[in-house]
Amino acid sequence: MHDDASTAAPARLATRARTLGIPLPGTTGPLNAITDVAGVEVGLVTLRPEDRSACTGVTAILPRGKAGAGTPVAAATFSLNGNGELTGRTWIEESGQFSTPILLSNSHAVGAAHAGADRWMHRTHPEASAAWMLPVVGETWDGYLNQINAERVTPEHAVEALDAATAGPVPEGSVGGGTGMNCYGFKGGTGTSSRRVGIGEAEYTVAALVQANFGDREELTVLGVPLGVRSQAPCPIQRTDWFAQEFGAAHRSAPGAGSVIVVLATDAPLLPQQLAGLARRASLGLARTGTAGGHFSGDIFLAFSTANPGSLRSVMPGAPGAATHDSLEFVAWGQVDPLYTAAVEAVEEAVLNALVNNEDVEGRDGHRSYALPHAEVLATDFSHARCA
Question: Which residue from 35, 191, 44 is spatially nearest to 105, judged by alpha carbons?
């Protein structure tokens, strides 16, 4: 703990999309979370002191858990819109893998989170840090609710989130890196979901975790129903002149500005090229919720596979463990469609979970963000839904 009232987020599973009666398609894992992929661990640190000087945090994702950090996972990325940042992408594109934790926070905390990942790896896996590291850090902008230039997120918070990472239920809503985020003009933040699929005699999990901070209120669609335009909830982030008051009359905030980071995990053995296809499908999951992917939203996606442990290592010739050849098992290209469908469904549901498993939040300078009203969802007729 720190003097600024950071909290390692407790397991908080209040109301999720399915418990509100939204008939979403697909078969979920037991937790309906990214931690349904065996080995994945998630930790969150939330910064919401009583003086409202911060409304932000850090989310940590360890693809192979704390013990497996430093062991590569096959991976790929995709940028639907590049108005954002995900560090480590050039190495992932070059080698088809990464071996560090993933950290998510606010736009101006990328450096602090990156430094924290380096410190944590050096403390816990010095043999890996002795060579070089390229941590994966993603960001979305929380400056409406958070004093984003106050540098409240520190490397120590990133370390704390990594130390807190566990398997099991994942808190959602206004927690971790999602604490100060807004989605479709409602309170947004952290959301997660998973799907189980069969391919031949094997069963695999595909799961998503989103840091949702995107979308215009008018766009929000749930199973084809335009809930955004119907909602009576206040939308001050879009319908007040707060931006002009703070930055000058010539400035207007763009509806839907903000960004979204999607992390997709699977235990299916996939090539990096197949994971690139999985990452691209995150766009379709977001589209099902209504977004057109506006210019001022950085929409960046990462997909990784925990299969094939020990493969894809990058070791200098002559070093211990250096190999001359490598191999990967992978799902045949003609069998990948169920995994793509699972990714689309999991991303869609993760966004909805971020919206409904949430609360009204007051941040800096009296700025407020209102959660999607449960009553409006419960009053909606979804009998037409494709999976009904």
Answer: 44
